[in-house]
Amino acid sequence: MGIVVGPRNFRGVGFKNDLGGYEIRSAFYKYSSAPKSSSTFCRNSNTVKVFEGFMDFLSYVTVEDKFPVLHDIMVLNGTGQFEKSKPFLERYKTVELYLDNDPTGNKITHNALKSSPKFVDCSKLYRPYNDLNEWLIMKGFSRKSKQALKL
């Protein structure tokens, strides 16, 4: 996907969100086009896995080594989408949170865990790394690393 900003042309990988906007990533920048929204992939599961960004979701798919994934997926495309996503999350029996191990991700996870037993903190699986993508980059993919993550 290409973006033209003034005289410059940028290229990146684009992921469509639920409202028709795009999350665009390259090695050099992150960009969101309007409208900003989360991205969901529904398979009629009782469990939804919630990721902060697409790179974390793609890291999960890499480690899980199953595509399409068996559970429903929500990629927030930024923590600012979590509150807006609550009505969608209410219909699930289990909500697995794969958010960043940073102050914002920890606060959202803490508040979610206090609000309902349906929320599960999965960020401890890749602690001390900031997120699942960083864990995968630092550990590399192998059967041993997959077992260590216990997905």
Main attributes of the structure:
151 residues; alpha/beta; Dna Topoisomerase Vi A Subunit, Chain: A, domain 2; five-stranded mixed sheet; three-stranded antiparallel sheet; 5 helices; 10 strands; 31% helix; 26% strand
Describe this structure in words.
This protein has five helices and ten strands. The longest helix has 13 residues, at 103-115. The protein is globular, with a radius of gyration of 16 Å. It has a single domain, classed as Dna Topoisomerase Vi A Subunit, Chain: A, domain 2. The protein has 151 residues and is α/β, with parallel strands linked by helices. The strands form three sheets. It has a five-stranded mixed beta sheet. The N and C termini lie far apart (32 Å). Helix 1 (54-64) crosses helix 4 (132-139). It has helices spanning 54-64, 82-89, 103-115, 132-139, 143-149; strands at residues 2-5, 8-11, 13-16, 22-25, 30-32, 39-41, 47-51, 72-75, 94-98, 119-121. The protein is 31% helix and 26% strand.
Q: Give the SSE order as H and E letters.
A: EEEEEEEHEHEHEHH
DSSP E strands, number: 10
Proportion of beta-strand residues: 25-35%
Contiguous uncertain segments of 5+ residues: none
Q: Please name the CATH topology.
A: Dna Topoisomerase Vi A Subunit, Chain: A, domain 2
Summarize the structure.
The chain is 31% helix and 26% strand. It is an alpha/beta fold. Helix 1 (54-64) crosses helix 4 (132-139).
Give the topology, please.
Blueprint: E1 2-5, E2 8-11, E3 13-16, E4 22-25, E5 30-32, E6 39-41, E7 47-51, H1 54-64, E8 72-75, H2 82-89, E9 94-98, H3 103-115, E10 119-121, H4 132-139, H5 143-149
Helix pairs in contact: 1-4
